[in-house]
Design a protein that fits this description.
Number of helices: 8
Shape: globular
CATH class: Alpha Beta
Structural class: alpha/beta
Distance between the termini: 39 Å
Radius of gyration: 17 Å
CATH superfamily: Vaccinia Virus protein VP39
Order of helices and strands: EEHEHEHEHEEHEHEHEEEEH
Length: 260
């Protein structure tokens, strides 16, 4: 399998090996075709608390961008990369080794939506302290599915968002933290998928530019909490001239977390 080394910026493409993700802190090997990690992965990784400890799971991990970034930010955390695609799992293992994280980061190859597959992949119920996920953004009945099998698997859900979230929460311990990034126009579905399961919800809208509508939301909650929801001030990614805002630039370089 041929691969390229890429970095997460405004648009994702082939980049010199000296750069990597997070301003050169994380080297990430990605297949030249199929889904490619980018700003969504950077934002999701930045959603976890710095210096987190315990077990964190990156569900739908792809080649491992989110989980590996979290492992760099939090040297006391153990991280599981949960992914169904064998090719992505192979690259994730290469990325773990390339970044020297083999003692703390592990690949769980299986279908998160199946309890039997989760068990076979070595995942125990209600053991994770953190679950971060970037679910497939579309349902097959609502979009034209890409003929590229890898892109289709990454972008189009075979079940409902609620099914995906329920499977993720089965892995999260009581009191543990769940974080999801999704399209802003699915906010209602995202909230419905966690109703009665999470509390202390925080919704962070992500705007391309000041004054524009949000295109992404990040949703954070605590399993079993009864605390109310908070709608946070938005994160703005770009200035009028398309440069990153100072905070967005710092997040992309791995120097700042999200403003929760």
């Amino acid at each position: 399998m041929s691969v390229t080394v890429s970095r997460a910026m405004n648009s994702i493409g082939t980049a010199p090996p000296a750069r990597g993700f997070l301003g050169g802190r994380l080297y990430l090997r990605q297949a030249p075709g199929g889904h490619r990690a980018g700003t969504d992965a950077v934002l999701l990784a930045a959603a976890a608390p710095r210096e987190a400890s315990g077990l964190a799971l990156d569900v739908g991990a792809g080649v491992g961008a989110v989980g590996l970034a979290l492992a760099l930010f939090s040297p006391r955390a153990r991280v599981g990369l949960v992914e169904i695609d064998p090719g992505a799992c192979e690259l994730a293992r290469e990325n773990i080794a390339a970044n020297g994280l083999g003692e703390r980061v592990f690949v769980h190859e299986g279908d998160v939506s199946s309890a039997a597959s989760r068990r076979a992949a070595g995942l125990a119920e209600e053991q994770a302290d953190f679950v971060l996920t970037n679910p497939p953004y579309y349902e097959a009945a609502r979009v034209r599915v890409s003929p590229d099998e890898k892109k289709a698997r990454a972008h189009v859900a075979k079940g409902s968002l609620e099914d995906w979230v329920r499977a993720c929460l089965a892995l999260l311990r009581p009191g543990g933290t769940f974080v999801m990034i999704h399209r802003a126009d699915t906010l209602g579905e995202c909230l419905a998928s966690v109703e009665g399961r999470l509390g202390a919800l925080a919704v962070l809208p992500v705007l391309p530019r000041e004054g524009e509508a949000a295109t992404r939301i990040l949703l954070r909650g605590k399993k079993g909490s009864k605390a109310p929801l908070a709608l946070l001030a938005p994160l703005v990614l770009h200035e009028a001239d398309d440069r990153f805002t100072p905070l967005a630039e710092a997040i992309h370089r791995g120097e700042a977390g999200l403003p929760w």
